[in-house]
Amino acid sequence: MPKFDLYRTLEQDLEPPVISLEGVTKDYEDDLHAIKNLTLQIEKGEFVFIVGSSGSGKSTLIKLLLREISPTSGKIMVDGKNLARLRENNICRHRRKIGIVFQDFRLLPDRTVFENVAFAMRVIGAPKSAINCEVPRVLSTMGLSEKLDKLPSELSGGEQQRVALARALVNNPVILLADEPTGNLDPKNSWEIMRLLEEINHRGGTTVVVVTHNREIVDVMQKRVITLNKGILVSDKKGGYSNAKY
To answer: Assuming Cys at both sites, which of 16, 40, 103, 218 could form a disulfide with 180, CB separation 3.0 to 4.6 Å?
Structure first.
């Protein structure tokens, strides 16, 4: 076992899971089980894919982790906090621990690259000096040092997703959720984004959870793969998308 992986394993043995779901069910109208009796744990520093067809519960799971919605039953722990016990004024603080990247980038069209990333720091009250230091640093790690003054419309799709990734990371989240991060990208840019996600995971120990339909990426990267089908956990193992059972 590589030395880095050995150290990570020892650390995981000493720490509670960063994400833990116990018997979680989420019902919508008409008795639809979006999530049904879901139990799983994700350790700090893991890189995990969540896969499944449309309607399998992937989006509901993300909303539950962000505390955008609450489960009908069951218990959700994120970074040691029971989400059901969070007071309203602590929900925003909880979400600051989670960086999120979407398929459609969700950049502010009238703000520059710098301003889009700085916005994430301003909403938590970061001082201007910290913003002026941290934003260029994180954009540099994304290979965007020469794009600070560009508007999103002046960037390629791959560059826009890297800006979105920088924005998600600038406040040093414990967990990074990526919801179909390569869905609007060509293969070259898709692999670049996945390389960056893997680098973020290895370099900083950030827990990375990627929701995706991209079978090729999942098969090649050989990470832990959690497969959902109609809200039910049907497979949880290391390997590729093609090995998952439906």
So the answer is: 103
pLDDT in tens, 34-74: 999 999 999 999 999 999 988 899 999 999 999 999 999 99
- Residues 121 and 124: their CA atoms lie apart, in Å, by 6
Q: pLDDT at position 5, please?
A: 54
* pTM of the predicted model as reported, rounded to 2 decimal places: 0.89
Residue 25's φ and ψ, nearest 5 degrees, are -125, 140
Q: Locate 218 and state its tokens.
A: 């999942």
**Interval 161-170 mean pLDDT:** 96
Specify if 126 maps to a domain: yes
DSSP assignment letter at 105: -
How many domains is the chain built from?
A: 1
Residue at 215 is within a domain: no
Burial class, 110, CB count within 10 angstroms (exposed 0-12 / middle 13-18 / buried 19+): exposed
Beta strands in 28-185 (DSSP E): 33-42, 47-51, 73-78, 81-82, 98-102, 175-179
Interval 211-237: pLDDT, tens: 999 999 999 999 999 999 999 999 999
Residue 72: what pLDDT?
A: 95
Domain interval for residue 124? 108-171
Asked whether residue 17 is assigned to any structural domain, the reply reads: no
232-239/73-78 β-pairing: unpaired
